[in-house]
Design a protein that fits this description.
322 residues; 7-stranded mixed sheet; binds adenosine-5'-diphosphate; binds magnesium ion
Length: 322
Amino acid sequence: MNEFEIIKQYFTGHCGRKDVIMGPGDDCALLQLPPNTTLAVSTDTLVANVHFFADMDPVALGHRALAVNLSDLAAMGADPCWVSLALTLPEVNEAWLKGFCEGFFELAEYYNVALVGGDMTKGPLSITVTVHGSLPQGKALRRDGAKAGDGIYVTGTLGDAALGLQQQLGNVTVAEPQQAFVRTKFEHPHPRILAGQALRDIASSALDLSDGLLGDLAHIAHASHVRAQLELELLPLSKAMTDTVKQEQAWQLALTGGDDYELCFTVPELHRGQLETSLAHCGVKFTRIGRMVAGEAGVELTADGKPYQLAARSWDHFRSGV
Ligand code: ADP
Ligand code: MG
């Protein structure tokens, strides 16, 4: 199969959106944005053996490649619209392509995102996805809007994807009934699109958790010139997490483990009631984990009301400690 046959067979004909004037096939896609809307654009690249194992299930990989990009749209509160896909493949493996498309298009159809173009090249396996979303003008959830006094919140539970990775690496043993849960959190992240949209008129800042809460929240703190105070007892942990590792390790995974793709956001006290109703409405669990205060930009941790110092950020102690 040549490049054009692959594109025709696997990557065209999925598009059902009226705002796509021209999808794959011409030199550019042509897309129509409604009046008074802002375009939100984000790109992520996944490189084999850097961001995923090269032998990863292609269905899970197709899902993940789109999910991590949609998560960025969620973090801005945007409505997903269009996506383009640049694939670098070492060879034409139709079983792999079929699996990849199954995972990719299942998620694309769920959020009504149209694949509008891309690129195909030969080389070491790598996947670059660019998503486009729309936002009512002035409504984006940015990182620089947090104020002293705002509460800090996260959706879902934290650290489960990192726990799933440690399980896969053989560093921890998750009990059999909970293995599917952590594997799903690791391999099948679900972007918090509905929560992001619901937070548009409520949150003062937001981002998605891809590198770990501690580092990611620091981005909000620095962009907003405020200090984040986290209370570690408040961190939402899954039963799989608390059953598998000690509290200190659970906190470490929740703070520094990546790939959660939950949202972290700040909310002024004034909007607290509205937050409860809006997120309950879209069925998303969320937890208040601290607050923003005036002071030097950064993140500070407390446990039992006392300052808390995180242990070394290495995974080595998992081998001896569990
Ligand atoms: P060009 O030579 O202008 O770069 P290509 O030959 O790379 O064009 O692509 C031809 C058409 O197929 C373009 O419209 C492009 O957007 C589309 N396309 C290429 N790869 C993909 C892909 N993986 N998914 C969807 N569309 C693709
Ligand atoms: Mg090209």
